[in-house]
Amino acid sequence: MLKVTIPGTVRYLLVLFTILLVLLSVSCSGKDEIIAEQDEVVLMEGNPSSACLVCHIEETPGIVTSYGRSTHIKNNVGCLDCHQVHENDPTGFEHNGFEVTAIPSPMYCQECHPNEVAQNSNSKHAWTAFIGQYKPYYAEARNLGLDPLAQETAKLLDPDEMAKRLLSPLIADSGILQKIGLLDDPEYNHANVTVGCGTCHGTFVIAEDDGTITGMPNAGVGRVNADGSLGSCTSCHTRHEFSIAEARKPETCGQCHLGPDHPQIEIYEESKHGNIYGSMGEEWNWDSKEWGADDIGAPTCATCHMSAFGGAVEATHNVGDRLYWELQPKTSVPQWKGPDEVDLVLERIPDPEAAAEGRTKMMAVCTECHSTTWAEGHFSELDKVVADYNKVWEYTDGLLEDAYKKGLISKDNPIDETAEIYHYLVWHHSGRRWRMGASMMGPDYAHWNGAVDTIMINLGAMINDLELREAVLK
Ligand code: HEC
Ligand code: HEC
Ligand code: HEC
Ligand code: HEC
Ligand code: HEC
Ligand code: HEC
Ligand code: HEC
Ligand code: HEC
After folding, report:
1. Residues 392-418: what's their mean pLDDT?
2. 279: pLDDT strictly greater than 90
3. In the prediction, which pLDDT does 259 show?
4. What is the percent of the chain with per-residue pLDDT over 70, rounded to a whole number?
5. Ligand 8 pocket, residue 139 CB under 6 Å
6. Pocket of ligand 4, candidates 201, 333, 424, 433: which has the most ligand atoms within 8 Å of its Cβ, to mutate?
7. Is the shortest distance between the CB of 83 and ligand 3 below 6 Å?
8. pLDDT surpassing 50 at residue 8
9. pLDDT above 60 for 283
10. What is the pTM of this model?
């Protein structure tokens, strides 16, 4: 039996070393249980997951070593605590005398982390596969009176195939694919819908009748799990370390929050906050339970959107909780009501009261480091930018409707003509950058990549195209 007290820095090495040592003694003595007692326990005597460790240190050493670095092992949480399959989960299989799943959904974390699971389930993150590429499937299921989360419904309607063959600005490349005859071509896989949308938004995990599982591997934030739950905790806490330090760093969010339509990580890198993180972040304290202004010198994504941050607000796994605006839709409005109140996928009802509370919570984070005047100054400029964008959008949208009425372009394919494409870009790409740049202190995204691309490039090209068409028709 091991009895050692270790200082923090060598703890990690020791845990690994201890696993190896203990495994060695297990294989020598032929016992099927790991026995180790010390301040940093490996797994307590009698924990049935010791059996998993014995094989998996050989079979998948990467998994066992990251598990060895986790808080879980220190708290005697074993492989089976997460992998022993639940009754209502069709992904289970018999495995060396145990019934396990390879895809523990948030339901497997719920018993020990009920608050995080509840908040996450109530966030747009959890619902985002349905808000995203599976929206037409979701609407059709509801139409037919079926449960969109059920395995049977998915097997009947095939959500991926529906997304791949849909003609709509929701699937931006569908208009041109239709025009060139590939959208309905069964030989054209349109596989970017699965590896693109699905990797960020999440896939539908389906346990087929023959035991195979489709929709995996995947760690999209809105993954639809086979037990009917939504989300994947591993999108931010990669298995098997399940670390808060990792989730607090901006790179974790930047995996999905990047690119021409939602460049939050690029905006962050450009901001003063991101610069301070880049130059000083290595020295900060990422593991502290009560994370606050004494641990870090500038906020990360998690600080502003999720952490309790010095007790200024309550920590939340609902990332919409501190927002005022919906900055992604065509017209910005106060935050919509959440999935606990409405069918979020199909109903968009702004909730100005909840949005105002969100603003108050966000301000409470800012004022841990700034004065109220400083923070208010920022938000007052942001609100002006949102108002400006809304005005430009109203004009752009009116212009398109006008062009349809005048017969300059046709409505039957909604996203193939030049004016339609630029109309899309005004909203979906540059118009978002404009608003998001202003939200998170990215001046280049607010101005050059934002307002200028929107007004001069996209709207400008749309106007010129329509004027030319009108002149030619005359
Ligand atoms: C007798 C050795 C042995 C034992 C005991 C064992 N495993 Fe495995 N396990 C394996 C092997 C071998 C694989 C396949 C690895 C591969 O595909 O490379 C595997 C695969 C898995 C997979 C992935 C399956 C998939 O389809 O992706 C999971 C999950 C898993 N084991 C969990 C467990 C858990 C939890 C325990 C303890 C209850 C356990 N294992 C005990 C040998 C074992
Ligand atoms: C705290 C919960 C938790 C613990 C403890 C845990 N796992 Fe996992 N495991 C998960 C989750 C979550 C996934 C990934 C599912 C996903 O991608 O969302 C996973 C995935 C896996 C996979 C499949 C991954 C792959 O790349 O093929 C294997 C194998 C596995 N775990 C084995 C183990 C073994 C062995 C142990 C014990 C040493 C263990 N797990 C401990 C939660 C856990
Ligand atoms: C059997 C109970 C149990 C299960 C199941 C469980 N956890 Fe934990 N988890 C714990 C305990 C205990 C801690 C340590 C709590 C503490 O230090 O206050 C912890 C800590 C954590 C932490 C914080 C780690 C850190 O760096 O401080 C994360 C993140 C986490 N768990 C995620 C998960 C996820 C995701 C799942 C499901 C895949 C899961 N847990 C399943 C018991 C569990
Ligand atoms: C690189 C990751 C990534 C890919 C790929 C991706 N998205 Fe997204 N999507 C996001 C993020 C992040 C947001 C959140 C933007 C925001 O709120 O600022 C988002 C927002 C959305 C929204 C707006 C949601 C709302 O609440 O109004 C829709 C709809 C959407 N995506 C659909 C899709 C579809 C359909 C695809 C594939 C054709 C796709 N996305 C591909 C990451 C991605
Ligand atoms: C969008 C990214 C993200 C997702 C998805 C996510 N987490 Fe977290 N989680 C975080 C961040 C960031 C923190 C650290 C918050 C802080 O600073 O207090 C955290 C902290 C935690 C903690 C530690 C809480 C504490 O008080 O010490 C637990 C436990 C946890 N998460 C569990 C989960 C579970 C379970 C899920 C899935 C239902 C999940 N997380 C999904 C980002 C995420
Ligand atoms: C200094 C605090 C702060 C930091 C750091 C920060 N944000 Fe934000 N974020 C905000 C504010 C403020 C808003 C706008 C709030 C409002 O609507 O009033 C916002 C808005 C958003 C939105 C909503 C856009 C929409 O479509 O409605 C997303 C998504 C987002 N942030 C993600 C991120 C990501 C990812 C990171 C890190 C790469 C990050 N944020 C870093 C404060 C921050
Ligand atoms: C695996 C991909 C992924 C990761 C990782 C991820 N997000 Fe998201 N996030 C999304 C998608 C997709 C959406 C769009 C949700 C919607 O509106 O449908 C989104 C939306 C958001 C929103 C807007 C929520 C709202 O209610 O309008 C915020 C804020 C946000 N994420 C913050 C974060 C932060 C902070 C992190 C890191 C701690 C993070 N995200 C990590 C994919 C991701
Ligand atoms: C952890 C501390 C911290 C938090 C929390 C924080 N900031 Fe900052 N912020 C800083 C520091 C440090 C600077 C650099 C100040 C300087 O340049 O003198 C800064 C700079 C700024 C700047 C100036 C940017 C520039 O380019 O000059 C603005 C605007 C700003 N913050 C707004 C906010 C807002 C709004 C919030 C809340 C949504 C917030 N900050 C949250 C620490 C913080």
Report:
1. 98
2. yes
3. 98
4. 91
5. no
6. 201
7. no
8. no
9. yes
10. 0.95
Span 70-104, pLDDT tens digits: 999 999 999 999 999 999 999 999 999 999 999 99
**In this model, does residue 396 exceed pLDDT 80?**
yes
The pLDDT, as a whole number, for residue 36 is 34
- In short, whether 52's Cβ falls inside 6 Å of ligand 1 is yes
Cα 204 to averaged position of ligand 5 atoms, centre (Å): 22
Class of domain 243-474: mainly alpha
Nearest CA to ligand 1 atom 26: 102
Atom 41 (ligand 8) nearest CA = 366
Q: Domain spans of the chain?
A: 8-83, 114-235, 243-474
Which residue has the least CA distance to atom 1 on ligand 2?
Answer: 82
Give distance in angstroms: CA of 360 to centre of ligand 3. 30
Confirm or reject: Cβ of 440 under 6 Å from ligand 7: no
Q: Is 437 in the pocket of ligand 6 (CB under 6 A)?
A: no
Instruction: Name the pLDDT band for 44 (thresholds 50, 70, 90).
Output: confident
Closest-lying ligand 7 atom to the alpha carbon of residue 123: 26
Position in ligand 8 atom list of the atom nearest CA 375: 35
- Give the residue whose CA is nearest to atom 10 of ligand 7: 125
Mean local confidence (pLDDT), 47-67: 92
Would you place residue 42 in the very low, low, confident or very high pLDDT band (cuts 50, 70, 90)? Answer: low
- 3-class SS string, the chain: CCCCCCCHHHHHHHHHHHHHHHHHHHHHHCCCCCCCCCCCCCCCCCCCCHHHHHHHHHHCHHHHHHHHCCHHHHCCCCHHHHHECCCCCCCCEEECCEEECCCCCCHHHHCCCHHHHHHHHCCHHHHHHHHCCCHHHHHHHHHCCCCCCCHHHHHHHCHHHHHHCCCCCCCCCHHHHHHCCCCCCCCCCCCHHHHHHHHHHCCECEECCCCCEECCCCCCCCCECCCCCECCHHHCCCCCCCCHHHHHCHHHHHCCCCCCCCCHHHHHHHCHHHHHHHHHHHHCCCCCCCCCCCCCCCCCHHHHHCCCCCCCCCCCCCCCCCCCEECCCCCCEECECCCCCCCCCCCCCECHHHHHHHHHHHHHHHCCCCCHHHHHHHHHHHHHHHHHHHHHHHHHHHHHHHHHHCCCCCCCCCCCCHHHHHHHHHHHHHHHHHHHHHHCCCHHHHHHHHHHHHHHHHHHHHHHHHHHHHHHHC
Ligand number with the minimum distance to the CA of 300: 6
Ligand 3 site, residue 243, Cβ cutoff 6 A: yes
pLDDT digits 0-9 by tens, 240-271: 999 999 999 999 999 999 999 999 999 999 99
Which protein residues touch ligand 4 with a CB less than 6 Å away?
A: 124, 131-133, 170-171, 193, 196-197, 200-201, 256-257, 259, 262, 327-329
